[in-house]
UniProtKB/TrEMBL annotation:
PROSITE patterns: COA_CT_CTER, COA_CT_NTER
Species annotation: Sphingomonas cavernae
Homology family: Belongs to the AccD/PCCB family.
One cellular component term from this protein's GO annotations in UniProt: acetyl-CoA carboxylase complex
Domain CoA carboxyltransferase N-terminal as annotated: residue spans: 1-257
Gene3D superfamilies: 2-enoyl-CoA Hydratase, Chain A, domain 1
GO molecular function annotation: acetyl-CoA carboxylase activity; propionyl-CoA carboxylase activity
Protein name: Propionyl-CoA carboxylase beta chain
GO biological process, any: carbon fixation
Family annotation (InterPro entries): AccD/PCCB, AcCoA_carboxyl_beta, ClpP/crotonase-like_dom_sf, COA_CT_C, COA_CT_N
Length: 508
C-alpha cells in the first residue's frame, strides 16, 4: 500500500511541474506566477481541491502523442475565499502556451457546470495562446462549449476573469462574456488578432501594449475593469472583490460586521456643493462618506470617468453605486458612460444588489461625435437597465438633474423606491440660460438676463419636483448615509416583478 501511495505522490508531483522547470523559470522571468502559484494566492490557504489532474489531450497529429503533459494546460478545481466557495480554472502557460484543447475545454466546462449546479462564482485565471493550433476544429468546438456555459451562467453565478498573460483569439471571448475583467499591466494582453495579423491585413503598425494591453483596455476600450501592477496585486484584489458579491442569484448578498454607525452624520457634506453651479466637486467624496468605513471598490475608474460605478456596503451589506462625476465632462451622460453604467446596473439587478444612485447630471453630451456614433441607442441602454431593474433603488440628487438624464438616473418614474434631493438640487428640462434663450429667442440681453433669473428661481431647486411627489423628501446632505441605511432596511423585503417574457430586447 505504501508503495502505491508513493507512486500516486510521484504522479502528482510530475503533474504539478506542468511544462517543466525551464518553462516555469521563463514564466517567472517575465514577472508572472505559474498557474498553481496563482491559485495559492487567490484561495484561502490549503482550501484548493484540484480535479482532473491527470487529464491528457487526445490529439494524434503533428507529433502530439509524444508530447503528453498531465492536466493539459489548465488547473481546475474549487476552494474558498474568506471561507466562501468558489470554482477556479487557471491556465498553465508552460503547457503549449496555455492553449485550449478539447480536453482542456472539457476541464473548464466541468467546473463551470458544477459551479452552476451548486451556486458558486467562477473565477478564470487566463493565460493562453488561444485555440490549440495542432487540434484544429476540436479546439474551436472546445471554445464554443465554454462560451455556451458562460452565457448560461450569466446572471446565475458571478463570473470574474483575470487576464494574466497573452490572450488571443478565442481566449478573449470567454472573458468578454463574464461579468468583470481584471488585467495585469505589462504582462497581459487581449486581442482578437495580434499585431502581426493587424499589420498584414490593415498595414497598421501597433505594439501588443497599444493594441490590447491593460492600460488600453481599462482606459480606451473599456473592455476590462481594472488594471493592476502585478499578478499578486490582481489576485488579492480579486479576493477583496469576491467578498462583495453573492455566491449566486439564489443567495443573499454577503453580510460583514461593521463598526460604522448607520446614523453617522457627515457635516462636511453640507458644504460639498460649491456656491458656483458650474464649479465641479469630486463625487467620490460623497460616496466614501456614505458607505461603511469609506470602503468603495470602484470598477472602470479610468474609463468614462464622467460616471462612477462600484461596490460598497451599508450596514455590512453590499450595495452597487452609480454616480455622475462633475469633475469629468461636467458629469454628462455620453456613449461610454451609458454603456459602463448600464451593464453595471444589470449586474446588480441580476444578483439582487440594491442600487444607490447619486445624481449631478447636466444632460446628455451634445455633438456630432456622439450622435453619429449612436448615443440614442447607447444612452437607451442605461435607461433600459434602470427601468427594468426590480432591486431596491435609492436615488439622491445632489445638484443638477436636467432633461432626459433626470429621467434616466433612477428617477421616480423608473420605479425609484426612494428619491431624495439635497436642498441644492436643480431639477429642470435644462440649465436656465439655455432654456431662456430658446423660449425667449430674439429678446434683448436685459430681458434674457431677467428671464434667466426668473427661470433659476423657479427651477433651480428641488421643490417643484417635490411638490409633485417626484422627490420623496428633501434631505440635509449630512444625513445622507442615515437616510439610505434606513431606506435599505425598509426595502429589504421589496417584491416587484416584471411581466413574464422570454427575455427583453435591450438596445444592444
Ligand atoms: C499551440 C501554442 C499556441 C497555440 C503558443 N503555443 N500558442 N501551442 N497552440 N495556440 C506554444 C508555443 O509553441 C510555445 O511552445 C509555447 O506555447 C510558448 O509560446 P511562445 O510563442 O514561445 O511564447 P511568447 O513568445 O510569450 O508568445 C505567446 C503568444 C504566441 C503571443 C501567445 O505564442 C502566439 O502568438 N501564439 C499564437 C496565438 C494565436 O494565434 N492563437 C490562435 C488564435 S485563433 P514551446 O514548446 O516552445 O514552449 C483562436 C480561434 C478561436 O483562438 C476563435 C473562437 C471564437
Amino acid at each position: 500500500m505504501q508503495a502505491i501511495v508513493e507512486q500516486l505522490e510521484a504522479k502528482r508531483s510530475a503533474a504539478r511541474l506542468g511544462g517543466g522547470q525551464k518553462r516555469i523559470d521563463a514564466q517567472h522571468a517575465k514577472g508572472k506566477l505559474t498557474a498553481r502559484e496563482r491559485i495559492d494566492v487567490l484561495l484561502d490557504e490549503g482550501s484548493f481541491e484540484e480535479l482532473d489532474m491527470y487529464v491528457e489531450h487526445n490529439c494524434v497529429d503533428f507529433g502530439m502523442p509524444e508530447q503528453v503533459i498531465p492536466g493539459d494546460g489548465v488547473v481546475t478545481g474549487s476552494g474558498t475565499i474568506n471561507g466562501r466557495l468558489v470554482y477556479v480554472f487557471s491556465q498553465d502557460f508552460t503547457v503549449f502556451g496555455g492553449s485550449l484543447s478539447e480536453r482542456h475545454a472539457q476541464k473548464i466546462c466541468k467546473i463551470m457546470d458544477t459551479a452552476l449546479k451548486v451556486g458558486a462564482p467562477v473565477i478564470g485565471l487566463n493565460d493562453s495562446g488561444g485555440a490549440r493550433i495542432q487540434e484544429g476544429v476540436a479546439s474551436l468546438g472546445g471554445y464554443a462549449e465554454v462560451f455556451q456555459r458562460n452565457v448560461l451562467a450569466s446572471g446565475v453565478v458571478p463570473q470574474l476573469s483575470l487576464i494574466m498573460g497573452p490572450c488571443a483569439g478565442g481566449a478573449v471571448y470567454s472573458p468578454a462574456m463574464t461579468d468583470f475583467i481584471f488585467m495585469v499591466k505589462d504582462s497581459s494582453y487581449m486581442f482578437v488578432t495580434g499585431p502581426d495579423v493587424v499589420k498584414t491585413v490593415t498595414n497598421e503598425v501597433v505594439t501588443q501594449e497599444e493594441l490590447g494591453g491593460a492600460v488600453t483596455h481599462t482606459t480606451k476600450s473599456g473592455v476590462a475593469d481594472v488594471a493592476f501592477e502585478n499578478d499578486i496585486e490582481a489576485l488579492w484584489a480579486a479576493r477583496t472583490f469576491i467578498d462583495y458579491l453573492p455566491l449566486s442569484n439564489r443567495e443573499d448578498v454577503p453580510e460583514r460586521p461593521t463598526a460604522d454607525p448607520y446614523d453617522r452624520f457627515e457635516e462636511s457634506l453640507d458644504t460639498l456643493i460649491p456656491a458656483n453651479a458650474n464649479q465641479p466637486y469630486d463625487m467620490h467624496e460623497l460616496i466614501r462618506k456614505t458607505v461603511d468605513e469609506g470602503d468603495f471598490f470602484e470598477l472602470q475608474p479610468a474609463h468614462a470617468g464622467n460616471i462612477i460605478i462600484g461596490f460598497g456596503r451599508i450596514e455590512g451589506r453590499t450595495v452597487g453605486i452609480v454616480a455622475n462625476q462633475p469633475m469629468v465632462l461636467a458629469g454628462c451622460l455620453d456613449i461610454n458612460s451609458s454603456k459602463k453604467a448600464g451593464r453595471f446596473v444589470r449586474f446588480c439587478d441580476a444578483f439582487d444588489i440594491p442600487i444607490i444612485t447619486f445624481v449631478d447630471v447636466p444632460g446628455f453630451l451634445p455633438g456630432t461625435q456622439q450622435e453619429l456614433n449612436g448615443i440614442i441607442k447607447h444612452g437607451a441602454k442605461l435607461l433600459f437597465a434602470y427601468a427594468e431593474a426590480t432591486v431596491p433603488k435609492i436615488t439622491v440628487i445632489t445638484r443638477k438633474a436636467y432633461g432626459g438624464a433626470y429621467d434616466v438616473m433612477a428617477s421616480k418614474h423608473l420605479r425609484g423606491d426612494l428619491n431624495y434631493a439635497w436642498p441644492t438640487a436643480e431639477i429642470a428640462v435644462m440649465g436656465a440660460k439655455g432654456a431662456v434663450e430658446i423660449i425667449f429667442r430674439g429678446k434683448t440681453p436685459e430681458e434674457i438676463a431677467a428671464r434667466t433669473k426668473e427661470y433659476e428661481e423657479r427651477f433651480a431647486n428641488p421643490f417643484v419636483a417635490a411638490s409633485k411627489g417626484f422627490i420623496d423628501e428633501v434631505i440635509a446632505p449630512h444625513s445622507t448615509r442615515k437616510r439610505i441605511a434606513l431606506g435599505l432596511r425598509k426595502l429589504r423585503n421589496k417584491q416587484l416583478e416584471n411581466p413574464w417574457k422570454k427575455h427583453d430586447n435591450i438596445p444592444l
